Amino acid sequence: MEDHGRIRVLLADDHRIFREALRMLLANECEVIAEASDGEQAVALASRLKPQVVVMDIGMRGIGGLSAARRIAKEAPSSKVLMLSEYQEEEYVLEALGEAGAAGYVVKTDASAELLSAVRAVNAGRQYLSPTIAPIVLARLRNGATTNGSRATSPTRREREVLKLIAEGATTKEVAHRLGISVKTAQAHRDNLKQKLELRSTAAMVRYAIKHKLTRID
Fold first, then answer.
1. Rounded Cα–Cα distance for residues 139 and 143 (Å)
2. What torsion, rounded to 10 degrees, do the Cα atoms 97, 100, 101, 103 define?
3. Under a CB-based contact definition with an 8 Å cutoff, are residues 69 and 97 in contact?
């Protein structure tokens, strides 16, 4: 049934100023019922308040946006998750729309023009992709791959690189430096790996890397 009232939205991003900007972008048609600054808080608020749409940053501290989206899909299935990300790489887009169960994906550089349209679309039960990254998904579909199923427990290429470096003893800061990414992004990869592969400690991550031949013991 179509909702003719204001769309009830939960904002989840670890930058307060950015959340304020999002709130202003959505003000005409949405009611921002709560804000979260990390993944755990987003899951708790979504479970309690049942927003129609959760606008979720991927790179938050703690469990991260992808892991939070997976939990919201289980704990508040009526809430549609719209991922908001600075990442345009195929692995993030496909994991968000597949395993994480997100209804849409908006690139932050497109947010000012696209966000309200995206919220409207996912609230109406449709998927939404930023024009910037739509060709990624279309190319993958043309190649015969899907956006769900087989990726459920497999680390992405970038996550395998992170695992390999962790197994070799690199700190999060060293992982960031070696891969040319921010420390925040390296930590997000680490947190997502722990959640996805159920690895509760660094030692468990090292054992996983050795078992799957991502590194070796000399």
1. 6
2. -50
3. no
Rounded to an integer, what distance in angstroms lies between the CA atom of residue 108 and that of residue 53? Answer: 17
Q: What is the mean pLDDT of residues 88-113?
A: 81
Residue pair 89/135 in contact by the 8 Å Cβ criterion: no
Non-local (6+) Cβ contacts of 117 within 8 A are 128
DSSP 144: T
Residue-wise pLDDT tens digits, 182-206: 888 888 888 888 888 888 888 888 8
Q: Nearest-CA neighbor of 72 among 105, 64, 128?
A: 64
Unique residue bearing structure tokens 């927003």: 51
Contacts of 80 (CB under 8 A, 6+ apart): 52, 53, 54, 103, 104, 122, 123, 125
Alpha helices in 82-156 (DSSP H): 90-97, 111-123, 134-142
Which contiguous run of DSSP H or E holds residue 161?
Answer: helix 157-167
Q: Average pLDDT over the chain, rounded to whole? A: 83
Exposure string (b/e) for 31-46, b if CB count within 10 Å is 16 or more?
Answer: ebbbbbbbbbbbbebb
Secondary structure of residue 18 in the 3-state scheme? helix
Specify the DSSP class assigned to residue 38. S
Query: Residues 115-159: pLDDT tens digits?
Result: 999 999 999 999 998 888 877 777 766 665 544 444 446 787 788
